[in-house]
Description:
- The structure is a single chain.
- By secondary structure, this protein is mostly helical.
- The chain has a domain at about 35-100.
- About 50% of the residues lie in helices and about 0% in strands.
- The longest helix has 22 residues, at about 80-100.
- The radius of gyration is 20 Å and the shape is elongated.
- The N and C termini lie far apart (about 65 Å).
- The mean pLDDT is about 80.
Amino acid sequence: MRKRTTARHARRAHRPARAGKRWVQTVETVSTFPPKGLFTKDAATVARVLASKRVSPKGIASGYKMLLYFINRGGRGLSRSRRAELERAKRIMRRRMAERRH
């Protein structure tokens, strides 16, 4: 007896290979503009600039989300040292958010 494939499984099997571009490459935002080259600076500078009202008018959480997005988007392309520095910036921003809550 032959197994019946659903339409969903059939589509998946015949899908062409990806062209190599990912959806995150096409994401654009008009709400905030972090300065060019910001994510190559030290952790304290990254945290301070992303927390500023000029870059994150909706508050520090908005800047934190931008940082998370950049780290996730960088993926394996980020060097260990760069990822470590950005993770440090995340910790600084988390501490600042916690201080503002209390």
